[in-house]
Amino acid sequence: MRYQELSYWLSSVDEPLAPRPGLPGDADADVVIVGAGYTGLWTAYYLAVADPSLRIVVLEKEIAGYGASGRNGGWCSALLPTSLPALSRRHGRDRALDMQRAMQETVREVGRVVADEGIDCDWRAGGTVVLARSEVQLGRARAAVAEAREYGLADEDLVLLDAAEAAARCHADGVRGGTYTPHCAAVHPARLVRGLARAVERRGVRIFERTPVTAVRSGAAETPAGVVRAPVVVRATEGFTPALPGQRRTVAPVYSLMVATEPLSEATWAEIGLAERETFSDYRHVIIYGQRTADGRLAFGGRGAPYHFGSRVRPDYDREPRVFAALRRVLGELFPMIGPEVPVSHTWGGPLGVARDWSASVGLDRTTGLAWAGGYVGDGVGSSNLAGRTLADLIRGAASDLTALPWVNHRSPRWEPEPLRWLAVNAGLRVMFSADEAELRTGRPSRRAAAFSRFLGH
Ligand SMILES: Cc1cc2nc3c(=O)[nH]c(=O)nc-3n(C[C@H](O)[C@H](O)[C@H](O)COP(=O)(O)OP(=O)(O)OC[C@H]3O[C@@H](n4cnc5c(N)ncnc54)[C@H](O)[C@@H]3O)c2cc1C
Prior knowledge:
Blueprint: H1 8-11, E1 27-28, E2 31-34, H2 38-50, E3 56-59, E4 75-77, H3 84-91, H4 93-116, E5 128-132, H5 135-150, E6 159-162, H6 163-169, E7 177-181, E8 184-186, H7 189-202, E9 206-208, E10 215-217, E11 220-223, E12 226-229, E13 232-235, E14 252-261, H8 266-272, E15 279-282, E16 288-292, E17 298-302, H9 321-334, E18 344-354, E19 361-365, E20 370-374, H10 380-396, H11 420-442, H12 447-456
Parallel strand pairs: 1-12, 2-3, 2-13, 3-9, 5-15, 13-20
Antiparallel strand pairs: 4-8, 5-7, 6-7, 10-11, 11-12, 14-17, 14-18, 16-17, 19-20
Helix pairs in contact: 2-7, 2-10, 3-4, 4-10, 11-12
Protein name: Glycine/D-amino acid oxidase (Deaminating)
InterPro entries: FAD-dep_OxRdtase (IPR006076), FAD/NAD-bd_sf (IPR036188)
């Protein structure tokens, strides 16, 4: 496999992506981690920093960064898939706010490690601008700010922008306003994950690549090459989790797809803006997300690819020409100054993990020694760092502010068996698409989309 073809990001790292050696045979460790994405590697990193004597093994079926960590939109944000009100209903207002503050701190923490470890990943903490391009979207922007104020979050956390302020940050067509939060950094995601892999190796962690784990059980991870025995086994497999025995209904793999343009001219960038490399989106229902890359491209993505029956994950699902065409069209609508043809140079996608109750979680079962983290939906770049720090505390038995956060040891229900799962996930995707179309047509907010959000517990 040519790993470079998996994303624009993996094609633009300064290394050949040669796989590390595989597991040579049976081994013993203190902690074995399955999956070398951000979750697995952040866990290894913080464990190794806290206790350099720990024997830590990471097993990866392809190469570090093969999964979503090497392919995402590069928003290192303070976002969570669960809204503040939903968290608050489940855990109380104070604990919901603790979680939000911990995520804001996480963005700074990732920036600190990137600097300390010399990880060259185009880190730029320029915040996020979310645009409103219709009256309905403007209403949603106002509601987002009002909700933030109810929870004591100030202008420094999220501020409403009028049309001129929003356009000054991101001059998309038809902008009527928006919101801005400073709690986000744009990052080259593949350089981050690959740099992190080298940072953990410098601290003595052993990473074995092209080593698929066929079973995870108490005390061991099994592979065709041998068994790694360890009192703690961490599952960090996110969207690929359903392929593991016993995990088919743990998360649903939903695909997010992206395109990248050729580098745009300085004149075009002078018109578009994004001068601080703010990440950007808008207030439609079907999520879109973008960043101005350090080399002057637009990297732009969205949901909308179908969920595949039986939670199957296959390389050909990464490519959905219909979605790529839609992304290109939306980019052209947002930024007509690019010209009649948006010059797309790369297209790719990957699976993310969605828990049944849309809640990310991190935990350790002390009786079995089995640990996990994930279910981040499209917000894992930041939250996997918080998960890694938290798992390091849980595994070392160190009670901390992190281990008291409400997502710790949260158990999401399992997804329905098929065909219900397939029907439900794809129906949800369709509701959001038709809601956006209906809102454009009628100029009124979609009641079906609001009802669906409530059903999901947002
Ligand atoms: C296109 C796209 C855009 C996104 N944009 C953003 C964004 O802008 N911001 C954001 O916060 N989040 C975003 N996300 C989500 C984010 O990328 C993920 O939440 C995050 O990378 C998850 O990290 P992870 O380490 O848990 O999982 P992954 O990066 O998927 O890593 C899991 C690893 O486990 C390995 N593995 C799986 N099964 C096995 C096995 N049996 N044996 C051994 N190894 C195994 C895989 O090969 C993989 O390397 C996006 C995701 C996608 C797909």
